[in-house]
Amino acid sequence: MASETRRHHHNLVPLAALISREVRSEKMEKPNVKYGYAAQSRKGEDYYLVKTDCQRVPGNCLSTFSVFAIFDGHNGNAAAIFTKENLLNHVMGAIPRGLGRGEWLQALPRALVSGFVKTDKEFQSRGETSGTTVTFVIIDGWTVTVASVGDSRCVLDAQGGGVSDLTVDHRLEDNVEERERVTASGGEVGRLSIVGGVEVGPLRCWPGGLCLSRSIGDMDVGEFIVPIPYVKQVKLSSAGGRLIIASDGIWDALSSEMAAKSCRGLPAELASRQVVKEALKTRGLKDDTTCIVVDIIPPDNSLPPPPPPKKQSKLRSLIFRKWSHDSSKKLAKKLSAVDIVEELFEEGSAMLAERLGSDTSAGQSTSSLFTCAVCQVDLAPSEGISVHAGSIFSTSTKPWQGPFLCMDCRNKKDAMEGKRPSGVKVV
Ligand SMILES: [Zn+2]
């Protein structure tokens, strides 16, 4: 092994050059973000959010990031509107202060989980019916972080890298895992049956009759319909790429691939209109149909990265493999990002303990020692209940260690896991 490595180093770009290339690409200017929005409304329950001037460090324009989101409401629009107005603040409120960019990006997946659950809890406490899907996209430089519940998709058409989904569909009809989770938590999954016992329509969850397995709101359905998002974080290559964020009005008519192909070569504004047009052509206006196209474009003054000669790239991939075996995973991952889309994070579990407890070091460095990991209220030392207490994870994790939950959030966690009957308030 050692001799092989030495040989590579002789024939190839020296390690130092690779690293300095990476440093250059890190320092490289942020990409330009251009977007277009198009929609056709039928029920008026699709909402969207575009915010291109968010700042990680308030007042520092170098820390700017963008947020794009779609909320597809059902049984009314209250949940979609409430989520549009509150989710971003709740997510940001769950990130410890004073983090550098790298730490901030690492803290995002967990903060997204907290923000989604807090928003759901707050909306439900208002006692209004209705629910919403959420597909929430944060773009910071070349790093794209997507959190989603429901079936509004975010598709990546990477420059030279092909089409891939950055979300999963939380639909009972096609998501077997979610169907099993809902059933195990006490929900019943079946179709509507009409006179004569004929079953029609998509699989739904009872009580409530929702076709989705995750959403925000929906207080009138079982609490196993959870607001815990699937989260995926990727870093694009310096060639950039295109995101297509859209509600199911698009995806019921077009595959991810079809949507991406239908608008290639068009600027974002025209592309979003083209995708909507294409979907309506196939299916007509059966549902609210909303599409945001976001282009992440290399800055004008940067040269496109020279394509490495074939031979070299083959050998480089050998080096990466070698390095990742050498537990220099981080370095290898970073270096390979020069050419391809790099997956930084992916987690879809519906278990709150798994989502909040996966990282004990990075979180909870906020001002207060005891803060509820979901709603961020301060806790007296006696009040906090470890997210791990009484769970299957308590064998591997000390139950007195954080993150902690307030009583209210602990009750919500139990309800989401089917540990108490839906709708029964614990006093
Ligand atoms: Zn709480």
UniProtKB/TrEMBL annotation:
What this protein needs as a cofactor is: Mg(2+); Mn(2+)
Keywords from the UniProt entry:
Hydrolase, Magnesium, Manganese, Metal-binding, Protein phosphatase
Q: Where does the PPM-type phosphatase domain lie?
A: 24-296
GO terms for MF: metal ion binding; protein serine/threonine phosphatase activity
Give me the segments passing through the membrane: none
Q: Which SUPFAM superfamilies match?
A: PP2C-like
Q: Entry's Gene3D superfamilies?
A: PPM-type phosphatase domain
Its UniProt entry gives the catalysed reaction(s) as: O-phospho-L-threonyl-[protein] + H2O = L-threonyl-[protein] + phosphate; O-phospho-L-seryl-[protein] + H2O = L-seryl-[protein] + phosphate
Family matches, as InterPro entries: PP2C, PPM-type-like_dom_sf, PPM-type_phosphatase-like_dom
**Which Enzyme Commission number(s) are listed?**
3.1.3.16
Top-tier EC class: hydrolase
Q: Which domain of life is it from?
A: Eukaryota
State the family named in the UniProt similarity comment for this chain: Belongs to the PP2C family.
Listed name of the protein:
protein-serine/threonine phosphatase
The source organism is Aquilegia coerulea
